[in-house]
Specification:
The chain is an alpha/beta fold. The protein folds into two domains: 288 residues, Rossmann fold (3-Layer(aba) Sandwich); 124 residues, Isoleucyl-tRNA Synthetase, Domain 1. Helices cover 49% and strands 15% of the residues.
């Protein structure tokens, strides 16, 4: 049996409704988790919500709500994605306001402190509330945060605790020198270059008086943890670290394969800061971090002011979760930026699903229902290597393209062999052709299961009942 897999998304801030970029990350993670589970690998699949920090505190104040009530409300919206996006039932959901996570974050602090990597100093710098991070002058674009062009960084002067990232220059260079610790490869090179330019210690606390919503610093009630220091610890607190009463940390992190999925703007946090924290605390580093690109709309970054924001739940409401999952897997590049418009989505939906997969399943099962007296017995064979390799390398679009080629080939086979004509002339030969078609549909359906689980379920149920399924993907005009 292969190593157990620990698989986690990042934790989105609960300061806005779920967006299409996070839906992409969830779907990519879910496809991976389902594939590995179907292949016999034990999987611990994690997501959740990041609920501390100045940005969330300010949003709650703007809404006139108690901050805990505000985070509770948004956490439920994100928790609801499990059902709305058809995520696997085993998905674990962690909140950074959970008591066991807070205890773990404080233990992480204590271990880093014991290692001599935490110190206190007065500091003056530019702080971006949007990113919850300090910026250098060289980071700014036209005086603004590069990720938040409408936000002017605040000048902050206070006494904070700092983490000695500079202590981990050589160890980080060694960690990043290992092929495969970051996908795609060019992101690994990006991380290496960042470290080689020279590291700087980073702030890991804020004064409670100015930012009261955070995890208390152990031994100093006047300070709360910097949100990133707190939130990053979720990746192991969700496994029960440090007590590990159920053995999940040992099974999935210590002895398993630990894989994190994140957006391309997270390299500094996930593959440098977080790995240094783990090194300081004496915890094994992450085996692999996979970075996806951004989703743009109409060639522009999504913005409410432009009016090009895509609501994933609105897409699900109109087209169904599987339609969104299929589009994200096939038409969004796994590592680079991709464009998403409702017009492009509708066009792909009709071509790939209504006229493609949905029509194929209906044709074959109508033939079976009309001409076969009993269901076709199907055998489930191992995943084709080309498909398996693509998913294992997180190349989801390649995996779906392989499935699409099989769908098109099966459609052509129907047109070439014309079993609907043959069965009228030679019943046995016609039935044999139809049985071949059903078996190939079942083979395709096995590959569809990680991608579009509800559709896959409907197709296999139709095969087992020897009945044409209801219209899987009604055409949209």
């Amino acid at each position: 049996m292969s190593k157990a897999l620990y698989l986690t998304t990042t934790l989105p801030y609960v300061n806005a409704d779920p967006h299409i970029g996070f839906a992409l990350e969830l779907v990519q993670a879910d496809i991976t988790a389902r594939y590995r589970l179907l292949s016999g690998t034990p999987v611990f699949f994690n997501t959740g919500t990041d609920e501390h920090g100045l940005k969330i505190y300010q949003k709650a104040q703007e809404a006139g709500k108690d901050v805990q009530a505000y985070t509770d409300e948004y956490a439920e919206k994100f928790r609801g994605l499990k059902e709305k996006l058809e995520l696997h039932q085993s998905l674990h959901f962690i909140r950074t306001t959970d008591s066991h996570h807070i205890a773990a974050a404080q233990e992480m602090w204590k271990r880093c402190e014991r290692a001599g990597d935490i110190y206190k100093k007065k500091y003056k710098g530019l702080y971006c509330v949007g990113d919850e991070m300090f910026l250098k002058e060289s980071d700014l674009v036209d005086g603004k945060c590069p990720n938040h062009s409408t936000m002017v960084p605040q000048e902050v002067e206070e006494e904070n605790y700092f983490f000695k990232l500079t202590n981990y220059q050589e160890r980080l260079e060694e960690y990043l020198s290992r092929e495969g610790v970051i996908l795609p490869e060019w992101r690994r090179q990006e991380a290496i270059q960042f470290v080689q330019r020279g590291l700087e210690d980073f702030s890991i606390s804020r004064v409670r008086e100015k930012m009261p919503w955070g995890v208390p610093v152990p031994g100093d009630d006047a300070q709360v943890m910097y949100v990133w220091f707190d939130a990053l610890t979720n990746y192991i607190s969700t496994l029960g670290w440090p007590d590990d009463k159920e053995g999940n940390f040992k099974k999935y992190w210590d002895e398993g394969e630990a894989v994190q999925l994140a957006g391309k703007d997270q390299v500094r946090f996930q593959s440098i800061m977080w790995q240094a924290m783990l090194m300081s605390a004496g915890v094994p580093t992450t085996d692999k971090v996979v970075y996806h690109g951004f989703i743009t709309s109409g060639g522009h970054k999504m913005s409410k002011s432009i009016g090009n924001v895509i609501d994933p739940l609105a897409i699900v409401e109109e087209y169904g979760a599987d339609a969104l999952r299929y589009f994200l897997a096939r038409h969004v590049h796994p590592f680079e930026d991709s464009d998403f418009t409702t017009a492009r989505f509708k066009e792909a939906y009709n071509a790939d699903l209504a006229n493609g997969l949905g029509n194929l399943a209906s044709r074959i099962m109508q033939l079976a229902q009309t001409n076969l007296s009993e269901p076709v017995k199907v055998e489930f064979t191992p995943y084709p290597q080309e498909y398996a390799d693509a998913i294992q390398q997180f190349k989801f679009s390649d995996a779906v393209e392989y499935v699409e080629l099989r769908i098109q080939a099966l459609d052509q086979k129907i047109n070439q062999t014309e079993p609907f004509k043959v069965v009228k002339i030679d019943v046995e030969k016609g039935r044999a052709l139809i049985q071949e078609l059903v078996r190939e549909l079942a083979a395709i359906d096995l590959m569809l299961e990680p991608l579009v689980p509800e559709t896959s379920k409907k197709i296999i149920e139709a095969i087992m009942a020897n009945k044409k399924p209801e219209n899987l993907f009604p055409r949209k005009e």
